């Protein structure tokens, strides 16, 4: 059935104001919602086959939600409801080597410009999930989402990692790979440094023990000295202190 001579109205919650209206063989913009002005178009190619497809230009996040399509021809009318999902594919993930952490190397993956919030994960060369050390998602001023995740690569672990970002609405993935990190990049502890550390610990322990023993010995010597001189005056008497008896 042709829809060329029908009235077609696309709206959100009320017939007026509308998202787009078509009647009398042409588009009508008199009561169009301000946020859709100059952004909508009813595709005319399919009207003869009863196709009343609405095209929205310069899609915004606020366009997401429920839409009603109301078609009327005289006493005949029909209404359909659909849900519009908005999605945005962001940047390819950027992987960088940041610093040393917890005995390994910390690598970070960053991406931006996604909607809705993307799924972010680390994978090894076999496609197996690699544990992340941290992950944060943030919403930007334009409403899109960015994500940052980190992982710690140890010297004896898998050193080839990739960062995968997935948009479930679009069934789209973007991936970046961090290639092999060679041995010289991993933090090392020299044997002489380890020996020096042990020696210092032993010396400090010996010094503490010597001080402790010295204090004990000093206390014992003081106690013996006091015992040996018990009963003696604490200071000698002078001439003025003596009283002589005359015979």
Tell me briefly what this model is.
Residues 1-89, 93-179 form the Ig-like domain. The protein is an alpha+beta fold and 247 residues long. Helix content is 15%, strand content 37%.
Task: Describe the protein.
InterPro entries: BTN3A2-like_Ig-C (IPR053896), Ig-like_dom (IPR007110), Ig-like_dom_sf (IPR036179), Ig-like_fold (IPR013783), Ig_V-set (IPR013106), IgSF_BTN/MOG (IPR050504). Pfam families: C2-set_3 (PF22705), V-set (PF07686). This protein has 247 residues and is an alpha+beta fold. The protein has one helix spanning 191-228; strands spanning 7-11, 20-23, 26-28, 40-42, 54-56, 65-73, 76-84, 94-101, 104-114, 119-124, 129-130, 134-139, 145-153, 161-167, 172-178. A hairpin with a 4-residue loop joins β10 and β11. It starts with 6 loop residues before the first strand and ends in a 19-residue tail after the last helix.
The assembly state of the depicted protein chains is single chain
Helix content: 10-25%
Q: What is the CATH fold-level name of the domain at 94-183? A: Immunoglobulin-like
Distance between the termini: 158 Å
What class do helices, strands and sheet pairing give?
A: alpha+beta
> Shape, please?
elongated
- Largest beta sheet: strand ordering: 3-2-1-6-7
| CATH H level, superfamily name of the domain at 94-183 | Immunoglobulins
Please identify, by name, the CATH architecture of the domain at 94-183.
Sandwich
SSE pattern: EEEEEEEEEEEEEEEH
Gyration radius, to the nearest Å? 42 Å
Q: Beta fraction of the residues?
A: 35-45%
In the CATH scheme, the class of the domain at 94-183 would be Mainly Beta
Keywords: Disulfide bond, Immunoglobulin domain, Membrane, Transmembrane, Transmembrane helix
Transmembrane segments: 192-214
Subcellular location: Membrane
Main location: membrane
């Amino acid at each position: 059935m042709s829809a060329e001579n029908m009235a077609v109205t696309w709206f959100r919650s009320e017939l007026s104001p509308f998202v787009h209206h078509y009647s009398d063989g042409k588009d009508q913009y008199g009561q169009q919602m301000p946020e859709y002005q100059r952004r909508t178009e009813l595709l005319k190619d399919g009207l003869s086959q009863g196709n009343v497809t609405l095209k929205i230009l310069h899609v915004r996040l606020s366009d997401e939600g429920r839409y009603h399509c109301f078609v009327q021809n005289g006493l005949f009318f029909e209404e359909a409801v659909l849900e519009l999902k908005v999605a945005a594919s962001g940047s390819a993930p950027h992987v960088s080597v940041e610093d040393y952490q917890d005995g390994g190397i910390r690598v970070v993956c960053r991406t931006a410009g996604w909607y809705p919030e993307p799924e972010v994960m680390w994978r090894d060369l076999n496609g197996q999930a690699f544990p992340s050390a941290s992950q944060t998602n943030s919403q930007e001023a334009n409403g899109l989402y960015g994500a940052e995740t980190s992982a710690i690569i140890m010297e004896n672990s898998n050193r080839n990692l990739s960062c995968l970002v997935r948009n479930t609405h679009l069934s789209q993935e973007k991936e970046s790979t961090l290639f092999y990190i060679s041995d010289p990049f991993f933090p090392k502890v020299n044997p002489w440094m380890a020996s020096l550390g042990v020696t210092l610990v032993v010396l400090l322990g010996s010094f503490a023990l010597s001080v402790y023993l010295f204090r004990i010995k000093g206390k014992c010597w003081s106690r013996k000295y006091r015992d040996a001189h018990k009963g003696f005056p604490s200071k000698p008497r002078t001439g003025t202190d003596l009283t002589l008896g005359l015979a």
